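Q: Got a minute? One more chain.
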Amino acid sequence: MQVSADVHHRAAPRSEAYKRLKALASRYQSLKLAQIAILAKTGGPFDDVLEQVDNMIKVLKDEDEADHSHRDRCEDKQRASKMNKQDAEYDLDKAEKEIEQLEQAESDKTLEIHTLEDQMAETQHNMDDITATRHSDTADFEKEKKDDEEAIVALGQAQDALSKFYKATSMLQVAPTPVRGARPSYRFLMKETDEPATEPLEGEGPAPAEPLEGDSEGPAPAEPLEAEGPASAEPEPEAPAAATTEEATTGEAPTTDDAASTAVEPAPRTNFKDGDYKGKAGDARSVMVILDMIKQDVGRDIKKAIQEESESQAAYEKELATLKEAYHAADSAKTAAEVEVAGITTDKSNAEEEKDAAQTDLDNELHIEEALAQDCGLFVEVNFDKRAERRKGELSGLKEAKSFLAAAGMSEHK
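A: Always. Here it is, folded:
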């Protein structure tokens, strides 16, 4: 009976401990508490059970510490990945904007180069045009000048020919045969002067003639013609009056009483030397003057043409210099724009490399973010708090079980 009572006395605390531990395991859904409840029921020493409780408490604390470390590590990585991702996105956006600006600048400069090339082409066309026009005008000027100079030479040759002709064929007028009872006959010389001779008007009587062959008085020599300036006309002597009808038919002069009213000088008999008419000296002088006037006009035309050609050449050179200056200015601006385009191209290439690097960094951070989401996302956002809450309950249950088992063990020893 005594042994049976002792067994019952020792079994009572264990049974109570088992019930309490089982209830704790059920309440906290703790496998560890369930294991301790079984261990307490099977009859192991309470000291061993208490040691197991202490080990489980330590495991839960280590697990809590590991979860906190895991969470902190995930949060640090997620924070770093987020910052790196933002930096990569910023660098990528910056590179894309820089490339866009550089492409616009390159397009503007390229358009500027094309505009300058068009200006240069137009300026070159204008230079070629005015140069061709100038050469054509110069050729026309040289031809006209040569023609005018040849005309002056031809006019001079004509003057020389006329001068030689009239010098060789000078004309002298001689007196007609005397008529009995008539007024003294006129003998006059057509003297060449600086003024052209005046020809007799129609109806004023016959023109003076050269002397007949055998006349006792030879012809007076003719002065050489003057080619310069118009000649003044020397008055011609009054022509003798025509003979009366009686004198013309009888050959005798009228009576003395009628002589004063009826006697007239008979028409002179004319004959040209050698029977060949050589021209009028007065007409020759007029022609010489006209030729001189033509030569002077042509000379003035040449002088005027030379002046106009000089002015046209000066205007052409001035305009050509202005066009050349504009061409060189456009060419310099084009060269500068091409240098800028080269620099822009280099900058754009660097920006594209930066863009590629930023895109690579962003892709890497996206992969890291995806990996962290699998490793840390669910754990940090969901499991960490659940695990911490469950550990908290288990720790409370284990601590409560430890206190209960310590009391039960003391009861068992008594």
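A: Residues 170-278 form one domain.
Q: Perfect, thanks.
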